[in-house]
Design goal:
The protein is mostly beta strands. It contains 12 helices and 61 strands. Strands 8, 9, 10, 11, 12 and 13 form a 6-stranded mixed β-sheet that branches. Strands 16-15-14-17-18 form a 5-stranded antiparallel β-sheet, with no helix packed on it. Helix 3 crosses helix 5, helix 3 packs parallel to helix 6 and helix 6 packs parallel to helix 9. The longest helix has 13 residues. It is elongated and about 135 Å long. It starts with a helix and ends with a strand.
Length: 946
């Protein structure tokens, strides 16, 4: 040891020691650390560090080089050890540049570690538990030669000695041959700090026939306390008292009144850690069972009981006592399934201490990272009470904060937490484990069965939707478990609008139809009649959650938290008033008020709910063709303004009562899904799906095997680039021109038949968007600006583009490409455009830019000029056509086609020689009265009614 002491003295004399910061470190993977006290203390004194990413990596195996560093940090202290270096390579595979070279050199010189027979040390190889224990024993003063830590059976001697002095305490599954992990190394080093050092009487080494033999007068004996402080409170001198004299261990109680150990280093608190309980229970327990489990021989008639750290009623722990810890006579209602009951037994004094600790459930409402002590804020979902089990405790304000590594949590995480009433603060927070599945059954106040597995209720169970009785079997839920595997929180499956529908009409097997069926308005606005597994007459007029089996049979369950302000009216029971004009619901609110400029929705007098960006609205309206149509909107800003009173009249005139059936998120007033009957009411400015059809992509008419006739277009449906089959014969009133391959079309409110063919659509409503068309697209300065129209950027009209605008390029073949950022748009004087300007905020919401092939464009000429307009009139066999934006001398083919049931039938094409700016020409064509024709030239078209 003289060599060691002289080295330390030299290092101390030649440099100033850097203060090691104390205090338990918050690692990002704290929740994965089994030996928390050991890791906190060992890292708190600087012996073992975490990684740069903030984690500790507890299960990562320890290398031989890293083990040498730990030993040096223990013996020399981390500051002194950091100055160790190697002048020459200690082993042939450990160059002086190796990060562990100094540590390996020192441990080798002290005889604490050895290399291999081939002259290597293998610093990156893993280290067995036996080998690490041998290192720790060497640091405590045990001599390898004397103790037999050499030779073929060295591991036997090491394990016997290490276990004998408690180096493996805390790890009941210690296997010496396995590679030691980082947290195991911390545990063994932690135990070594509290282990007693040893020394030997005078030793002599003699040479016998060429072999060196060490002769000791005596076996290892414990080193006396001497002048060192007795900080470990044990006889003789412990390792920490010699090498970490500022590390102090104090016996105390924690904030739950459990016997505990408090660790401090240089006056700073590392942490307080409860002792391991002698017995632990997770439900109410008989006092006689505690007596037996502790193997007591004498009763404790006044065993102390604590509830969340506050002293409760004493009880008698005695043989055969059938009274429980919590009974009507003492500690009433303090213990139930899910409670943690920890029992500590001081055998010397025959004292029993019983600590009841409740686990509660909450959600992370926020987290604060930019402070010196980051914390999360817990919103308690459980009812927290005092020891009388009735007086509630408010977990709010600063009491709701828990200092921790916030990287471990996200807002809205469901967490388990403990609360100490004595300290009046949250003591632990961990994320709860969850299980998802279909609810099979439940027993009130006791248990539930989810996905064929039964789970008991934990004492402090909570339900996100308010009441246990709101649960419905065959519906999907997420349950969160406490640490004992009991249910402590029940939540609805994350809202998925696609699985919700409104029940428009039902029929049962008892009716004349002879089978169970329902007619549903689906969340996509389609209407579907389906077979069901039961009679769901009682669900008519409400919102349901549905599931279809592999046979196409539907099971329905009323959605949770359904509210309504009207009653059902169907075609079967309302023959007097057709749904198309009177709607599907009746007796709603005459003061209904929903505006897409605000979140609040007045459903009826005195009732206000709120929509947000995730709310799904299915709205029934009478369309331009006189039938009830169902439109879907996501987000209150995209939904229409719907009012019972028409605000455009003065005074406002009531148009029609509005009915609304809706679900809310839990017990809140936030709407998740709504079905609104707005037929006949004032409705404006709803952002319906926009459909764009790329003319250049139109195919010739296709007739499939079922004799469906349609044209296939490249298209944009809302924000998805796709293809659309446009039925050749459109429904009456549709604005879609099927087969149009010259003019791009933008429509809304598209209807599709059961073959997936687009059968009709409406024109873009002027109350929703102002439609912009023309030639010339210009890139302007500014993040969200663009110029449209004009022959130069300066001559264009500047528009602001919405940050979430949907923008697309369409090439000359009709291929559509999404534009992710307005910055990616290039100036193009020949490109044509269709823009939709949101009338609410004045920003461009949709922009479709059509590239023009000047060599291909009809009438474009060599200069690349595109027509800016076309008009036509008809009289006595002559069509008069006016072309605007022409060039003198250029030839412009003009085509006249008959619009027949949505299909274009070409009649004639005539070449018109252009004049400067405007050209007027006559074309002979016999057109029929009462028919509609389309006159096209280049990128322009004109619908001519005769």
């Amino acid at each position: 040891m003289k060599k060691f002491l002289s080295l330390v003295l030299a290092l101390v004399m030649t440099m100033s020691l850097v203060t090691v910061s104390a205090g338990a470190k918050d690692f990002s993977d704290d929740g994965s650390i089994t030996y928390k006290e050991a890791v906190d203390v060992i890292s708190g004194i600087g012996v073992v560090d975490g990684y740069s990413g903030g984690d500790f990596k507890p299960t990562e195996v320890l290398t031989r080089g890293a083990a040498a560093k730990i030993i040096c940090n223990l013996i020399l202290g981390p500051t002194t050890a950091s100055y160790l270096s190697a002048d020459t390579a200690p082993f042939k595979d450990v160059p002086v540049t190796n990060v562990f070279a100094g540590y390996i050199t020192y441990c080798s010189q002290q005889g604490i570690i050895n290399g291999y027979a081939d002259g290597t040390f293998r610093p990156t190889a893993t280290l067995s538990g036996n080998a690490f224990m041998k290192m720790l024993l060497g640091a405590l003063g045990y001599d390898s030669a004397i103790e037999g830590y050499t030779g073929a059976n060295w591991t036997v001697a090491v394990i016997k000695q290490a276990a004998g002095i408690g180096l493996d305490d805390g790890n009941d599954e210690f296997v010496g041959s396995k590679a030691v992990t980082r947290e195991e190394a911390a545990l063994y080093a932690f135990n070594m700090l509290q282990a007693t050092m040893v020394e030997y009487d005078a030793k002599t080494s003699v040479d016998i026939n060429g072999a060196t033999v060490t002769i000791a007068g005596d076996k290892a004996k414990e080193v006396a306390q001497g002048s060192y402080d007795n900080n470990m409170h044990k006889p003789n001198l412990q390792f920490a008292e010699r090498y970490f004299d500022k590390l102090d261990k104090t016996e105390t109680t924690d904030d739950f009144a459990r016997p505990a150990t408090k660790w401090t280093f240089k006056g700073d608190k590392i942490g307080t850690y409860a002792d391991a309980a002698d017995v632990t229970y997770t439900s109410n327990v008989k006092l006689g069972d505690i007596y037996s489990d502790l193997d007591m021989s004498e009763k404790d008639k006044n065993a102390e009981v604590y509830y969340n750290g506050v002293e409760a009623d004493d009880v008698a722990v005695s043989k055969g006592n059938t009274v429980k810890v919590s009974s009507s006579s003492a500690n009433n209602k303090l213990v139930a399934d899910g409670s943690t009951v920890e029992v500590f037994y001081d055998e010397d004094n025959n004292d029993v201490t019983i600590c009841i600790i409740d686990t509660y459930v909450g959600t992370i409402s926020s987290k604060e990272e930019k402070v010196s002590d980051p914390y999360v804020v817990v919103n308690s979902e459980s009812l927290v009470t005092e020891k009388d089990a009735s007086t509630s405790v408010s977990i709010s304000g600063s009491k709701a904060r828990f200092e921790t590594n916030t990287d471990n949590f996200e807002e809205d995480d469901v967490v388990l937490f403990t609360y100490s009433q004595s300290a009046d603060e949250i003591k632990s927070v961990v994320k709860a484990e969850s299980v998802e599945g279909t609810l099979d059954k439940y027993t009130l106040g006791k248990n539930l069965t989810l996905a064929d597995t039964e789970y008991k209720y934990s004492k402090n169970i909570a339900f996100s939707f308010g009441s246990e009785t709101s649960m419905t079997t065959k519906s999907d839920y997420v349950i969160y478990l406490d640490t004992n595997g009991m249910v402590i929180y029940v939540d609805e499956q994350e809202f998925d609008a696609s699985q919700y529908a409104y029940v428009l009409y039902t029929q049962s097997s008892n009716s004349r139809f002879g089978k169970d069926q329902v007619q549903l308005v689906m969340s996509d606005g389609s209407v579907k009649t389906v077979d069901t597994d039961d009679d769901y007459t009682s669900l008519e007029g409400t919102i349901v959650y549905y599931r279809a089996d592999d046979k196409g049979e539907y099971a329905l369950r009323q959605a949770a938290n359904v509210h309504k302000n009207g009653s059902i009216v169907t075609t079967e029971d309302d023959r007097t008033y057709p749904i198309s004009t009177n709607g599907v619901l009746r007796n709603g609110a005459t003061d209904f008020d929903m505006k897409n400029t605000r979140a609040a929705i007045t459903t009826k007098t005195g009732t206000t709910v709120y929509g947000n960006s995730e709310t799904v609205f299915v709205v029934a309206e009478s369309d331009a063709r006189g039938k009830t149509d169902y439109s879907v909107y996501k987000g209150i800003k995209n939904a229409p303004t719907i009012m019972s009173d028409d605000p455009t009249t003065s005074p406002a005139v009531e148009t029609k009562a509005v009915e609304m059936v809706y679900t809310t998120s839990g017990s809140s007033d936030v709407v998740t899904f709504a079905f609104i009957d707005a037929t006949g009411a004032y409705v404006t400015n709803g952002k319906r799906d926009v459909v764009f059809l790329a003319a250049e992509s139109a195919t010739k008419m296709i007739t499939d095997g079922d004799n469906n006739q349609y044209y296939l277009y490249n298209a944009v449906v809302d924000d998805e680039i796709t293809t659309v089959k446009v039925k050749a014969a459109q429904d009456a009133g549709s604005v879609v021109v099927a087969g149009n391959d010259t003019v791009n079309q933008v429509v809304t409110n598209a209807d599709y038949n059961n073959k997936g063919l687009l059968t009709s659509a409406d024109a873009i409503s002027a109350s929703d968007y102002t439609t912009l068309t023309g030639t010339g697209v210009w890139k302007l300065s500014g993040s969200y600006s663009i110029g449209l129209g004009g022959t130069t950027a300066s001559a264009s009209v500047r528009y602001t583009v919405a940050s979430d605008a949907k923008m697309y390029y369409i090439d000359t073949d009709g291929v559509i490409t999404k534009i992710d950022d307005v910055k990616n748009i290039s100036s193009d004087s020949t490109a044509t455009y269709i823009g939709l300007l949101d009338v609410t905020d004045g920003d461009i919401a949709y922009l479709f830019i059509q590239e023009v092939d000047n060599g291909k464009q009809e009438g474009a000429g060599s200069s690349g000029v595109v027509l800016s307009g076309i008009s036509a009139s008809y009289s006595s066999g002559t069509v008069t056509v006016t072309l605007t934006g022409t060039n003198a001398g250029q030839v412009y083919p003009v085509t006249i086609s008959l619009v027949n049931g949505g299909t274009l039938v070409k009649l004639t094409t005539a070449n018109v020689t252009g004049a400067a700016t405007t050209t007027t020409a006559t074309i002979s064509a016999a057109l029929s009265s009462g028919s509609t024709y389309m006159v096209t030239c280049g990128d322009q078209s004109f619908v001519l009614g005769v």
